Amino acid sequence: MGTEISGKDVRKIHTISELTSDIRSRLESAYPFVWIVGEISNLSRPSSGHLYFSLKDNSAQIAALMFRGQNRQLRFQPENGLKVTGFGRISVYPPRGSYQIILEYLEPAGAGSLQLAFEQLKRRLEAEGLFDAVHKRPLPFLPQRISLVTSPDGAALHDMLKVLKNRYPNLHIEVAPVPVQGEGADRQIASALKKINALNRSDLIILARGGGSLEDLAAFNSEDVARAVFESEIPVITGVGHETDFTIADFTADYRASTPTAAAESAVPVKERLKTEISSTRNHLCAAFKSHLSRLRLKNLNMQEKLLHPRRSLSLSRIRLDETEEKLLRRFKRLIAWKKQQLGWTEKALSPAPLFQWLQQKRMQHAQVHKMLHFYLSEDIRRKRIDSENLQQRLNSLNPFAVLERGYAVARKLPEKSIIRETGNLRPGDSIEIQLARGSLRCRIEEMDHGKKKL
């Protein structure tokens, strides 16, 4: 059976826009505002400042949108993979026909947004090097002017003024009053730090406040305050909260004190203690100076004793001069006597008689040496001649040509001219050469005798 549509029935036909608008109205009416929890994925931050992402769980996902006005109030940076809890309204985006949630509020699931924002900012600034010890400026030993950046109504200001007055009463102190918590407190703190640096009258800045919750300390965990502390040309001491409280400003400061009171104590020394140390040092220097002066006086007296009166010194000089004159005269006389003796020896050596006698002796020695040389040379030549003749005889006895002179001959086989020592290698008809003492013969073998029979 089919379904019949009578002519009286009126069909309701919707356009896509009408249907989408109707669905949108129904969804927004059914879910005006809802809380939702999920994991961020596909996060996008276009230039408009809005945030676009998806929220998903194990089996489903939903598109999410957070307009710039709302995400500027976030205390943390959304990132992919972060599980969050959000509050918003369900709506439909007509151009794509998809439903989405428009978020008004967002916070990390499980951890507070302030703690997450703290950890994210700490990691980022640490990666930039703002916490490195190389950037820490040394604190002045005795600052003449200190600027206190704190709340004018807080107990921290009272504690710091009391400590500074007790430690160094005549110290010049100026107070830069700022709110230390609440909306806009971070901007006012950063502005106060920059103004103090612009005036450039202070030697030291103390940024402090009393203890509180993480939300109370949020201004000191802001990026503006952290960078203002880091960029300060004047050294900065932070004393925020209690000993267990740490803020981002503590990491960028030049020195972190555990409390406002500790910050004031680290800023200046105790004046009375300085006076005591100065007095002790002065007494030590005076004693050392007196001791040194006494040593100099004693040394001066010793030198005065060693110094002689000019007349006495002149007399001693005259005596030493006379002694030196006598020594020179004695040495001069001994020198003259020695020179005379040398001159006598030279005259004696240069007289003609000894010289002639010396020449005669040298001639005789020369003749004797010449005679001996002639004898030895003649004898040596005679022995060399005999040895030469003996060698010549031995060479002649070994000379094969000498054997030929006695009637012998040397036979060689042709054409290789090898010496013939036996008949075993010869045949009738072979050509041979016979070397005589003078000349040679070329012959042909007709017959041979091997020493046994004829061929």
TrEMBL record:
<dbReference type="InterPro" id="IPR025824">
    <property type="entry name" value="OB-fold_nuc-bd_dom"/>
</dbReference>
<keyword id="KW-0963">Cytoplasm</keyword>
<protein>
    <recommendedName>
        <fullName>Exodeoxyribonuclease 7 large subunit</fullName>
        <ecNumber>3.1.11.6</ecNumber>
    </recommendedName>
</protein>
<comment type="similarity">
    <text>Belongs to the XseA family.</text>
</comment>
<keyword id="KW-0269">Exonuclease</keyword>
<comment type="subunit">
    <text>Heterooligomer composed of large and small subunits.</text>
</comment>
<dbReference type="InterPro" id="IPR003753">
    <property type="entry name" value="Exonuc_VII_L"/>
</dbReference>
<dbReference type="GO" id="GO:0005737">
    <property type="term" value="C:cytoplasm"/>
</dbReference>
<comment type="function">
    <text>Bidirectionally degrades single-stranded DNA into large acid-insoluble oligonucleotides, which are then degraded further into small acid-soluble oligonucleotides.</text>
</comment>
<feature type="domain" description="Exonuclease VII large subunit C-terminal">
    <location>
        <begin position="130"/>
        <end position="443"/>
    </location>
</feature>
<feature type="domain" description="OB-fold nucleic acid binding">
    <location>
        <begin position="15"/>
        <end position="106"/>
    </location>
</feature>
<dbReference type="Pfam" id="PF13742">
    <property type="entry name" value="tRNA_anti_2"/>
</dbReference>
<keyword id="KW-0540">Nuclease</keyword>
<dbReference type="GO" id="GO:0006308">
    <property type="term" value="P:DNA catabolic process"/>
</dbReference>
<dbReference type="GO" id="GO:0009318">
    <property type="term" value="C:exodeoxyribonuclease VII complex"/>
</dbReference>
<dbReference type="GO" id="GO:0008855">
    <property type="term" value="F:exodeoxyribonuclease VII activity"/>
</dbReference>
<dbReference type="GO" id="GO:0003676">
    <property type="term" value="F:nucleic acid binding"/>
</dbReference>
<keyword id="KW-0378">Hydrolase</keyword>
<dbReference type="InterPro" id="IPR020579">
    <property type="entry name" value="Exonuc_VII_lsu_C"/>
</dbReference>
<dbReference type="Pfam" id="PF02601">
    <property type="entry name" value="Exonuc_VII_L"/>
</dbReference>
